[in-house]
Amino acid sequence: MKTKTTLFRRLLAVCQFSIALPALFAAAYPPGSTAAEATLPEQLIGTSQEFLEQAVSAYLQRSEIQARHEIEIHQLDPRLRLPACDKALNATLESPAQPVGRVTIKVRCEGASPWTIFVPAQVHIYRDVLIASRPLKRASVLSETDLKLVERDVGLLNQGYLTSIEQAVDKKLTRQLLPDQVLAPVYLQQAEVVRKGDHVVITAHSGGISVRMTGEALTDGALGQQIRVRNQGSGRSIKVRVTGPGQVEAPM
Question: 236: which of 33, 94, 215, 224 lies 20 to 30 Å off by Cα?
Fold first, then answer.
């Protein structure tokens, strides 16, 4: 008996919801009114499309980005009816800060019967980005043959991307890459130009005086990085800055 009662209550709840759902859409669209007295989903989509076209074009021009773009307004419920607006609809970008990737547009009526609705959309911006041309191991130092430029939707590249081979050549990978995988900036670091045990030339400047001496690198070092070397003349360990392959600079 208890099972039958529970089943009856569930069926009753479903029926009540089915009856209430059309009422939600009818609340803003009274019976007997016509399409001319309502703002239809097609109008909301058109307003959102026009706004995004202008916003994306302005963003690309402002950022000096050469790219093609596509705008996809997500489907709205065809039963949606909002009161007709006696003023032009106003559209603004609700999120994110720039019109790239998944976006939300706020469409407002500021007329006699004001209302606000949020319209979801997707902005696809296609640029040529760097990808791996073959499998690459972690700690590999990149060359031009390791990379190629391919068009991708940058709105989907959450870790960022690179747009020229020069940005990556002679850099070292911090992780392995698969063929056709996008090369994100976080996957790169400066490659060492000095290795532990290398003989280096230590240069020290003071005013117009320049002193050179030989030393031995005690650690690896990338360009601009500080490392320790042993002065072969004095035997002392000093801190220096890497200025090039086999070249370091010491403060005076």
Answer: 224
Rounded to two decimals, the pTM is 0.69
What structural domains and CATH numbers belong to the chain?
Answer: 27-125 (no CATH), 126-190 (3.90.1210.10), 192-250 (2.30.30.760)
CA distance linking residue 238 with residue 240, whole number of Å: 6
